[in-house]
Structure formats: structure tokens, C-alpha cells
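FAQ: What does the model actually see?

It sees only this:
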Amino acid sequence: MKRGTRAGAEGFTLLEILVALAIMAIAVTLVLQLFSVNLRAVSIAGDMTSAAIRGEARIREILAEPSLTETSWSETSEDGYRMDVSISEVLKERTDNLPVRLMEVILTIHWMEGRREKSLGLKSQKITDKMAPALKNSAAQG
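And it is asked to produce this:
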């Protein structure tokens, strides 16, 4: 038996332990970074979903009106969402000979995410009676 070596010595050397700790530290760091990226993605998806729900609710309110006229406006909600709304008549040449017209509602909702402004655009159409605005105006005058 040589001096300095033990017969049947079991266990790990200091170098093996350091390598194992380094590999484990890298693995834990990667897992924590994945959780961080996941949380950020969930937050972004939540903001986008909230904006989509608000925009859809507002566009449904606009479409519920019996007659739509060409106009545009901007409004801001109490919780920081800005909505730009535009209503216009589309396909005029195809609806000239019809008693109806096709109105398009475009709503763009804006919100701040950190320092950047995000936006989501929604578009819908509604068929309205051409006589509805005239009847409404004549009833208001009479």
C-alpha cells in the first residue's frame, strides 16, 4: 500500500463537488429565468385580454344604436385606456340602389405597458336603414 492513498476510500473529491455545485447553480438560474419570462408573458396576455374585452364591450354599445352616422371621436376610460372610434359608410357604390347602407366601426384601444404604448384594433360592420337618420331628424323637428 502506498502512502497517501487509502484502500477502498469512497466519496467525492473536492473537484467533483465543485463541478456538481456549478452545474446545479446554472440549472437553478435557468429555471428561475424561465419563470420570470413566463410571468412577464402572462402579464402581457392579461393586459391584452383586458383591452380586448373593454374594446369589444364598447364596440357592442356603439353597434346597439339604431342608426349610425359617419363620425369619429376619442375617449379615455378611468383606468387609463384610450379608445379612438371611427364610423364610416363602406361599399357605397354597391349599396346605392338598396334601402340599406353598410357602416363600418373601427375601434383602436391604447394603453401603457411600462414606458411603451400598446394598441389593439377592432373592426365591425352593421347594416342600417338609409331612412333611419331622416326619420330621427324629422321626429326631432316636429
